[in-house]
Write a structure and sequence with these properties.
homodimer; 327 residues; 35% helix; 14 strands; seven-stranded parallel beta sheet; four-stranded mixed beta sheet; 11 helices; alpha/beta
Chain lengths: 327, 327
């Protein structure tokens, strides 16, 4: 069941996540990186790995065991995910929640037809947080669950504030409302919307001479992104921005609060605290790539999610060792 | 893959854990309880379920899908676990860590021979905490993990203090050292023994005229149990004991603290807070009994641990629903 040779990994897409995968593979001695596949001219990629054009991918069919798709969920994965699954076992981090069923069907069909195996929607949310939610539901069927995100940088919200006229640099942190977290820890089970659970804190470097009042008004009234939330806008210098706000920390907490049949209360809590969202996400993808390699070797085909994969498959250690050391 | 009829559950052993399973099955409408098997005279069991002698168990071979073994790890499971696996798919909570490999081999051999499926060492530790440890190792291969237990009642330590002459009632709480927890949360990775991580707090109702000083000395110097730990002994009235110290709360935290290859830090934390240790443990066993039922139906035999079971098998919901609602 455990591999006798190194697992050969390919990276499709070389943004923050792709670079994260490059780093993560270095921490896993049972794996090796074969190359990076990109839409940019490969020579222009600042990358120590062999780089190839996306169109060359199919020539690597027998040279790569698992292709980790480091593309975005908006257009790249829906457009190219299935094409990759035609040639490779794949792992991706598709995270448009509403479209997961449709995406799953598409990848599943393609992977079955081509006898490949694809893990979709891996990472930490969806991914590890989904596992925590499912475990909570199964172990405490009478209860409620809550997902808090942050403190962390939301790329979508940061992009939104950067589109506001007069904003030179901007970043948005999503922050859980600590009072609400504590209420739930104390056994309350309130009905909550995301906007009851999170604050949105923005740091902005304005263009010279920009109308700060107007920037603030535009942001706090932006529908969907900020209007429903308690939003704070802070103007800072470019120097402070570059010193303190260029990282991509994130994290959050999934809480399941429930009762056994006698009425006694129980709480399950899963928390992540990450200095780099893309690097941690990549670490999750890489561990799951090992599982996909092994399950594909056992003859499994089609699409899977983290719900379908036993944790033993994530580890390079033999099962006896896991039982001895970690059980 | 999901069952068309109710899963028929048997309970072997009717102490706190067995009663917990009885309660937990009530919260799972896809299951039904067939009966309780006991070594005591079945009539003397205060139980609304049909009760039978252990020796009758084998007559239920075709009437029970999963037998949940609610026996202790000291003698009952090692002596009778394999015999139960001869007739039934089983789930147990064997928790003598050092003997898990030996116990696994014994059950595995018996279950393979008899075409049954057995999950050993389920519950929260071993069990859910083991899953958290394994996940941490796989996702953050460069790091350290820490398991804190408590605040909660340790049965073994409570039994030990009740054997001290002059002690009428006694209970022992294991409590994590909060400063140490915070250090780890702040990214330190100290080398720690269990005694650096936990306090032991005892509440004792002395016999009339007992020598309190002597009781305290005996406890705090008891090797293995207390001598290495910071131990506090509190003498209280019988009234206070009965009011505040008859529950069985427990819980704890597993922390994995690690780095990605760039040196950035990440923390994974899994916490349980339980008003009743046996009722929560039982809830875990019952969710896993569903998985064992389904995996046995698929033809799987032998012994398994929680490491071998995908979370999707724990849920009564179809996979599409899980992907739609929880991913």
């Amino acid at each position: 069941m455990k591999p006798e040779r190194k697992i050969r990994i390919g990276i499709a897409g070389y943004g923050n996540l792709g670079r994260g995968v490059e780093y993560a593979v270095k921490q896993n001695p049972d794996m090796e990186l074969i190359g990076v596949f990109t839409r940019r001219p490969p020579d222009e990629l600042h990358c120590s790995l062999p780089a190839f054009q996306i169109s060359d991918m199919k020539n690597f069919k027998d040279k790569i065991d698992v292709m980790i798709l480091c593309w975005g969920s908006a257009t790249d994965l829906p457009e190219h995910g299935a094409a990759a699954a035609e040639f490779f076992n794949t792992v991706d981090s598709f995270d448009t929640h509403a479209k997961i069923p449709e995406y799953f069907r598409k990848i599943d069909e393609c992977a079955r037809k081509n006898h490949t195996l694809s893990l979709i929607s891996c990472g930490w949310d969806p991914g590890l947080f989904s596992l925590a939610r499912l475990l909570g539901h199964c172990v405490l069927p009478e209860g409620k669950d809550y997902t808090f995100w942050g403190k962390g940088v939301s790329q979508g919200h940061s992009d939104a504030i950067r589109r506001v006229p007069g904003v030179k640099y901007g970043i948005q942190y999503t922050v859980p409302v600590q009072d609400v977290v504590e209420k739930i820890r104390n056994g309350e089970e309130p009905e909550l919307k995301s906007s009851d659970m999170h604050l949105r804190i923005c740091y902005i470097v304005p263009e010279k001479g920009a109308d700060l009042k107007k920037i603030e008004e535009t942001i706090i009234n932006m529908p969907h992104y900020f209007k429903e939330y308690k939003t704070t806008v802070n103007f800072i210098s470019e120097e402070e921005f570059k010193k303190n706000h260029t990282g991509m920390p994130h994290g959050g907490t999934v809480i399941r609060s429930g009762k056994s049949a006698t009425g006694l209360k129980h709480r399950i809590e899963f928390t992540l605290n990450l200095e780099s969202n893309p690097e941690f996400t990549a670490s999750v993808l890489v561990a799951y790539a090992r599982a996909i390699f092994r399950m594909a070797k056992e003859g499994k085909t089609g699409a899977l999610t983290v719900f379908d994969i036993p944790f033993a498959y994530l580890s390079p250690e033999p099962d006896e060792k896991l039982r001895e050391k970690l059980l």
